[in-house]
Structures are given as structure tokens and as C-alpha cells.
Amino acid sequence: MKLSNKAILAPIAAVVLFASVAHANNKMTVDFTGQISSATCDVDLGISGETSVDLGWIPMSDFSMGQSNYLEGGNKSFEIALTQCQYGTQIEVGEDGQPQTVSVEGKGDAELKVTGTTLSGTNEIFSSASTGSNGVILYEVANSNTPVTNNQGIKLSNTGTKQTVAFTAKLASKAKENFAIPSSDVKAPITFTYTYN
After folding, report:
1. Which of 50, 83, 105, 107 is the most buried (most CB within 10 A)?
2. Nearest of 74, 72, 39 to residue 56 by alpha carbon
3. Pairwise CA distance, residues 74 & 141, whole Å
4. How does pLDDT run across 64-119, given as a tens digit for each residue?
5. pTM of the full predicted structure?
6. What end-to-end distance do the CA atoms of the chain give, in Å?
7. What CA–CA distance (Å, rounded) separates 88 from 6?
8. Within 10 A of 90 (CB to CB), how many other CB atoms are there?
9. Per residue in 28-42, is it b (16+ CB within 10 Å) or e — as a string?
10. SS3 assignment, position 183
């Protein structure tokens, strides 16, 4: 009795197929995120198409003690633009005692929240890691004597479809003297979030 190649290969193919199915990942978890708010704005860097601010190369000799009580060097202005702002509605009891739908525009507290990792021992020198000596410090132009701190909310207008917030960014170091500043590349991811409560 002569077996054909097809008869011999069929059971082998079934075993291979079963083995691959047995090891298949038959489920996955997808993280969905979102936010529900009574008002929203698009948050963008005020430089068209840009998503980063380059502070350049600053020599140690250009650093001096700043308003933050840390050594600061360089100076780069930028804006955060809030556009396409939309306001929701809410139900309120009218003067006649009946419920009525009204716009929330102008009724809530609008803020631009600034968050990021800061260097250990500081709340205002932002860096990609909490270790090290060098990072980035921000000042809101409207309040140039006080550095922006992590988790700070900057008050915004609670009306209108767009507005901007002007900032100044500087390189900063925890070193005590400018000649003691360690050479390093600096990276500081900072998140700007529009909130309306």
C-alpha cells in the first residue's frame, strides 16, 4: 500500500496549525483615555507647526543668579495658544422656578495647568529626570518675578474662543557657582493642559 504525499503531509500541517493557534495571543487590553469638561480649548505652541523650543547652547559664564534663586542662563520667549474654545451648557433654575439651559461661558474657572518632572529638591526646574543638576525654568511674562512651579494653574479668561499665554524659558542649574555647572544636554518635557471647572 502506497501512501500519497498528501496523506502524509495533512496530519503534519494540522499539528503545525494547532501549535501556532495554541500559542496565539487571543486577547489584548487597550487603554482608552479622554476627558469630560464643560469647556474645551485646543492647546498649541504659538509657533506654527512646532512642538519644541530650542534654548540653544549657553556657556557657563552667561549664567547668573535668577529670581528663582538658582543659576539661570539664556532667554527664549514663546507662547501657548488656546484656540477653538467651546463652551457647554448646564441646567439652572430660572427666575420663574423652571429649569432652563444656559451656557457655561464665563461661569467657571479656566486655567492653563503646567506639569512635568522637576529636579529633586526643586519645584520649578523641569527636566526629563528628577536626578541631575540642570534643567529648564519657566516664567510667565505677566508675572516675570516668580518662576512657574510644577502643577501650577495659570488663570485664564473664561470667555472667548482664543487667547495666548506668553512665557520665557531659561536653562537653570542647582549649582552654587556658574563655574561649577556640570556640562550636560538638557531635555524637559512640560505638559500644558487647559482646565475649566
Report:
1. 105
2. 74
3. 15
4. 999 999 999 999 999 999 999 999 888 888 889 999 988 889 889 999 999 999 99
5. 0.79
6. 84
7. 68
8. 13
9. eeeeeeeeeebbbbe
10. coil
